[in-house]
Structures are given as structure tokens and as C-alpha cells.
Design a protein that fits this description.
Blueprint lengths: L2 H24 L5 E6 L5 H17 L2 E6 L6 H13 L4 E4 L8 H9 L3 E5 L5 H7 L5 E4 L2 H15 L3 E8 L5 H14 L3 E9 L4 H14 L5 E4 L2 H13 L7 E3 L5 H8 L5 E4 L2 H16 L7 E3 L3 E4 H5 L2
Parallel strand pairs: 1-2, 1-3, 3-4, 4-5, 5-11, 6-7, 6-8, 8-9
Antiparallel strand pairs: 10-12
Helix pairs in contact: 2-11, 3-4, 6-7, 8-9
Length: about 325
């Protein structure tokens, strides 16, 4: 082959390679962020997803979302996280169904180069430390403060005396235990006797069943704190079925739309708003900052609000 033709072919190939490389350098990487939540059926997490998607759209990142069917199904949540690892997410936002059992799979994600942001329900810090899991940031609320806010309002409604009960969240889970601690603190300086306290696992049907049994054993109950709105809605059904509508004060946590309606109807007296849409939004923003090499805080707390009939009507 003519030497001149060979030289031209080599130079042409080098030029095409240079142009190709130049195009590659100009491409902007699209970050991939995963959000793994509890209970797809709970409107609280629908609001969280809305906030996360709003941030993802504005920042032009790809958001992969997964949620378990039942809040107690930790095995399903582990499977979702494993799938997120396979799909190559760079940051994982996790609202753990169990504060300890999720840690091993999160360590696997970390070992694969994925950064971890904990949202809403806190991962157990000591178990994470022992496993070598590093959480880049926690985004959520102080659940103990929220439990005390709901408890203080219930004490006020009861005039500081009488018999009360509590429907707890899943025992051993951080947010459930924190809300319980807060409520018990609110009871300390009152003459209220806590006659029953039992988990209803965040579920409305269990709230109905558990509080039905509580009322049968303790018909003199005058106040009830539920660690989330779903259990409160079930408990209100139990109150109505027992013919005690209007005789028991109820406070709860989450500010779902159904809870707001119940407050306006006078069946529920108050709930705690923890702004899950802000948790989702802030989580994605922090993930984006992390991927862009920025320093992010170890904790981002969202402000809590007490929601009552008065401030609902004032809107």
C-alpha cells in the first residue's frame, strides 16, 4: 500500500479518536440515587416520594424508588436494597423497616461504593459501628420531642389526671421507641396512670384489634396516644364500636389527610406533622451535594408541628 495513503489513514483514525474522546468529556454524568421506603400503602411515604421526585427533577438526577408492602417485612426491604446495588445507584436513601436487621445489606452497598443517607427512622448507631457501616447523614425529626408534644397535649386535654393507654409502633425500631420515650416523659409530671401499652405494628387493622381488647380490659380509659395515625384510625373505630365516641381523647403522629379529617370531625384531637415531603426533598439534595464532593452535615433535622382542629380551621 502507498506510504502516503497509510499515513493519511493513521492521521484520520487519530482525528476520529480525538473527536470521540472530546465528545465523551463533554457529556454530563447523570447521577443515580435510590430511595427505599417502608409501606407503599402508607400515605406518609407517598408524600416522601413526592418530595424526593421534586428534588430529583430539579437537579436532573435519576431516582429509583422501592417500597415494601408491609412495614414489618424486613426481608423484602433487604431484597429491594440488593436490587438497588445491582442497578448501580451511587447514593442510597433508606428508611429502615428494622433499625438493626438492615445493616448487613447496607454494609454490602457501602462495600460496592454506594454512599448511605438514613431517612426518617434511625439506623441503630452501635450496631452500625460494630459492622463498619458509615452513615453519611441522617435526615428526619427528633421523634422523642414529637412524642412528648403529643403527650403534653393529651395531658392538657385530660386535665392532668385519669387513665390513659398507648399504642406503640414496632418495638425495637428507633422511631417507635423514641416516640414512646417522649410520651412517657410527658406523663411524668401528671397524675395520669398508664394502664395499657402495646404495639399495633403501625397498622390500622391491628390498632382496631389491640385497642378493642384494651378497652374491654380497661373501660375507664380516658386518653390514648398512638405512635402513628394509621393505628389511631383503627383505635377510633374501636372507640366507636364500643359506644364511647366523644369520651376518649386521642393524639397521634404523622398528619395524614385521613387524620386531619378525623380531627375536624372531633374524633382525633391532635397529630404531629413531621413533613415527610421535606425529608425526601432534603435527602435527594444532600445526595447530590455528596456526589459533587461537597461536605454535608451528619444530621439534618426537620421541624415538627402539632396539628389541632384550631390550626386546621385557621388555614
Amino acid at each position: 500500500m502507498n506510504l502516503k495513503i497509510i499515513i493519511i489513514m493513521i492521521l484520520t483514525g487519530m482525528l476520529l479518536l480525538t473527536v470521540g474522546c472530546g465528545k465523551k468529556e463533554q457529556q454530563t454524568e447523570i447521577y443515580k440515587i435510590g430511595l427505599v421506603m417502608k409501606a407503599a400503602s402508607n400515605p406518609f411515604f407517598a408524600r416522601m416520594e413526592e418530595g424526593a421526585r421534586l428534588a430529583a427533577d430539579s437537579l436532573k438526577v435519576e431516582l429509583l424508588v422501592g417500597a415494601i408492602t408491609q412495614e414489618t417485612d424486613i426481608n423484602q426491604q433487604i431484597s429491594i436494597v440488593e436490587n438497588m446495588i445491582v442497578q448501580g445507584v451511587q447514593v442510597l436513601l433508606i428508611t429502615p423497616a428494622d433499625s438493626k436487621s438492615i445493616i448487613n445489606v447496607l454494609k454490602s452497598a457501602q462495600d460496592a461504593g454506594i454512599r448511605i443517607i438514613n431517612v426518617d427512622n434511625r439506623i441503630d448507631a452501635e450496631t452500625a459501628r460494630l459492622a463498619g457501616l458509615k452513615i453519611d447523614c441522617y435526615v428526619g425529626v427528633d421523634n422523642e420531642v414529637g412524642g412528648k408534644m403529643a403527650g403534653d397535649y393529651l395531658v392538657q386535654l385530660m386535665g392532668g389526671r385519669g387513665k390513659a393507654a398507648m399504642l406503640e409502633g414496632i418495638r425495637g425500631v428507633d422511631n417507635a421507641e423514641a416516640r414512646k420515650r417522649g410520651f412517657l416523659k410527658a406523663m411524668e409530671n401528671s397524675e395520669i396512670e398508664l394502664v395499657a401499652s402495646q404495639s399495633a405494628n403501625w397498622a390500622q387493622d391491628q390498632g382496631l384489634d389491640v385497642f378493642t381488647n384494651m378497652l374491654q380490659a380497661n373501660p375507664e380509659i380516658k386518653g390514648l396516644f398512638c405512635a402513628n395515625d394509621m393505628m389511631a384510625l383503627g383505635a377510633i373505630q374501636a372507640i366507636e364500636q364500643a359506644g364511647k365516641a366523644g369520651q376518649i381523647f386521642v393524639t397521634s403522629y404523622d398528619n395524614l389527610k385521613a387524620a386531619q379529617q378525623s380531627i375536624l370531625q372531633g374524633k382525633l384531637q391532635a397529630t404531629i406533622e413531621q413533613h415527610p415531603e421535606k425529608m425526601g426533598y432534603e435527602g435527594v439534595v444532600l445526595a447530590w451535594e455528596l456526589l459533587n464532593g461537597k461536605t454535608i452535615p451528619e444530621e439534618k433535622l426537620i421541624k415538627l408541628d402539632l396539628v389541632t382542629k384550631e390550626n386546621l380551621l385557621a388555614k
